[in-house]
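Exam revision sheet. Question 4 asks you to relate a sequence to its structure. Input first:
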Amino acid sequence: MAQESPKNSAAEIPVTSNGQLEDSHEHSFNRDLKRSLPVGLGLSETKITSHGFDSTKEGVIEAGPFPGGRAQQKSGPVVLADEVKNPAMEKLELVRKWSLNTYKCTRQIISEKLGRGSRTVDLELEAQIDILRDNKKKYENILKLAQTLSTQLFQMVHTQRQLGDAFADLSLKSLELHEEFGYNADTQKLLAKNGETLLGAINFFIASVNTLVNKTIEDTLLTVKQYESARIEYDAYRTDLEELNLGPRDANTLPKIEQSQQLFQVHKEKYDKMRNDVSIKLKFLEENKVKVLHNQLVLFHNAIAAYFAGNQKQLEQTLKQFHIKLKTPGADAPSWLEEQ
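Answer key, structure tokens:
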């Protein structure tokens, strides 16, 4: 025989003759439900009222003090202050803005290369930047040639010094050629000494031009790169604003146009600032370049001319004029190239 399934007391809900729940069972059900609710929901008591079949409401959950129940202490909801910020969300927002800005700039660059996009051009400033870059290449070539000359001159001075020592040694050992070896030794030693003086002037010239090219001009070109980046950002947001202004104006597009206008204004101010910075740096660079190269070219010319004229006094005077101090003559000091 099949066994009867045990009756579940929870399934037996007594009702009255008109189809409503008995009050005693309703209170018992509400009490059991209240005990099963977790503490800390912010509600003092919870009461569930069930209506009859003829009612429009199927079930109502009422929040309020339960009749006959004990009043519990209310625990207010936890409110986060506006000052509390999540660092992770801030970083995520920064990454999002950076990605959006990168996308806009990349699109602007590609559009310009394909000839579809317009770019803002300051003809006068662009011409000055092109001249600066061209001059930098020429100065780098002069610097490279001067370094080669310094290396070769160092090798020649080193050879002359060794040759002078060899002549002096033979002058002591060859009595019949003592005089001939002697003045050749003196000549080579004098040439080596003058060569060291000229080498000091050339190395000073190289150091000054190297500072001008690889520090002063490079610093200005770094500002130029920042200016060009600001120009691309400005054109990218300008293009976005122009496209939005050409479209319809409704409740959905007006907030976007306003936001685009604000971003455009921010990048326009940045672009104007960087353009002004580049103009100022180019002006100061030109003044500094003329002053530095004037002194260095005079030094280079006077030193070379005095060396090949055999004017030792004029050569030494040139170094004193530019406050150049030489190391001990005859010392095997490495050139600037060997010190690298």
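Marking note for examiners. The chain is about 70% helix and 0% strand.
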